[in-house]
Every structure is written in C-alpha cells, then in structure tokens.
Amino acid sequence: MIIVMLAALGLIFGSFVNALVWRLHEGKDWLNDRSECTHCHHKLAAKDLVPVLSWLALRGKCRYCHKKIDDTPLVELGTMALFLVSYFFWPVALEGGGLLRFILWLVFSVGFIALISYDIRWYLLPDKIVFPLAVLAVLQVAALSTIFGGGWHTALGALTGVLIIAGLFYAIFRISNGTWIGGGDVKLGLVLGLLAGGPLQAVILLFAASFSGMVAALPMLITGKAGRKTQLPFGPFLIFGLIVVQLFGTHIAHWYTGLLYR
Question: How many CB atoms lie within 10 A of CB 198?
C-alpha cells in the first residue's frame, strides 16, 4: 500500500513539476494559473492532465493544435522513481526524526526535480525554487538539532557542509568571475551543504557530482558533440550527488573510514 501511494504521489507531483517550471519561466502565477498548451495556449482539461496516460493517449501531441507537447512523462516517471528508491533505500528507521527526514526529503525531492528540469532546459537554477528549499533545510536542521535530540553535532555537521560546498563554489565563482560556475550553483550549495550532514558527506557529494558529470560529458567530447566551451548544467549532477549521500552516504563513509584505519 505504501509503495502504491508513493508511486501515485510521485506521478502527481511530477506532473506538478512540469507545470511549475514552465509557469516560472513564463512569469505566470504558478499557483493559480491553469495549465495550457505552450503553443496554442488552449487551457487544458482534466482529461489532458492525467500523468503519463494523457501523454500516451495523445501520442505526445496537443489535443487542440496537434503540435508536439514540450513536457514529457520523464519528469513524472523520474519523480515517481525517486520517491520509490528513497523509500527502499532510506538509511534510518521511519520513526521519530527518521520519519520527519523522510517526509521532508520527499518535499525536497519535488523541488530538486524541478531544479533539474529547469536547469536542463534553460541553464538556470531559479531563486524561487532554491530559496524556499534553503529555508526548509534550515528548519530541518533546527528541528533535528532540538526536538529530535541531534544537538550541536547535527548543527555543526550542517555548518561544515555549507562551508565546504557553498564556500568552495563561492571561491570558484569569484576567481572565475562566474565563467566556471554559476551563481545559482553557489546558492544551491547552501541547500546541499545543510542537507549533506557533515564534512565527509560533503566531500562524497562533490566527488559523486564531479564523477557523474565527467561520465555524462566524456561521450559527447569523444564523439565531437561537445567541446571544451560547451555549456553543461551542473545542477543535476550536484543533486545526484546529494541523492547518493542521503541514501548511501553512511555506508560509503563507513567503508572509507574502514579503509583508513586498517
């Protein structure tokens, strides 16, 4: 039952993400405006908005103007997959602080999927998504530090994560005058640092992000589809690094420290 519920929620919130990123980009009211075709601007009916199924039934084309629908089910399916993977591999018991973290992680996941979609399409991490996530991350750290007994250790881990990730990105941003890394990545670094939970986790996050970015870029470089100056959004890889840390960071940290003290 929980798996079915999470799958359904993932599809629903994935559909919301598709609408959210387009409305933000077009400067529309993301909360009150109705969904519409990006080509003919016809307001969409409920039958056009069923996650995945509507797209399949319409064969990826608008019911009214028959042009290709810009949004794809990949965002909906990706959100569902992240919800389910997070549930299957959640590293702590789903009770007390662990349950709070899981619920908030699902909320963060929706925001992160929105950032990934926006960054891939328009090479930008909008403040209207990043800043609410930062506020939520601060509230999570505060709750875990006080109500759920994490104490100063939790707060200190979040602070060191911010110093390592956001501090490094800010230094790179200043040194390169914004040519090597964007300001949005610096702001996102605040969220990632708060959620990473400690210095070792922050380093694992940066390694996972850099390695996955290299793996994605290498085939394009080899085939000539990209060059040294080709712009590649880094936000999705940073978020991937955080997912690795959230779900597997404890195991990776234990494995690494075990190697050091053999």
Answer: 21
Give the separation between CA 199 and CA 195, rounded to whole angstroms.
11
CB proximity list for 178: less than 8 A, separation 6 or greater: none
Q: What is the pLDDT of residues 10-64, one digit of tens each?
A: 999 999 999 999 999 988 877 777 888 888 988 888 888 889 999 999 888 999 9
CB-count exposure of residue 249 (10 Å: 0-12, 13-18, 19+):
buried
User: Residue type for 84, please?
Assistant: L
DSSP label at residue 91: S
φ, ψ of residue 191 to 5 degrees: the values are -65, -45
Distances (CA, A) of 243 to 52, 164, 186, 204: 24, 17, 18, 11
Residues ≥6 apart with Cβ < 8 Å to 78: 14, 113, 116
106: nearest Cα among 32, 13, 30: 13
State both tokens at 38. 């990006």
Q: How many CA atoms lie within 13 A of 240 on its CB side?
A: 18
Nearest one of 57, 75, 68, 38 to 48, comparing CA atoms: 57
Written as six digits, the tokens of 229 are 């100056």
The phi and psi torsions of 208 (rounded to 5 degrees) equal: -60, -40
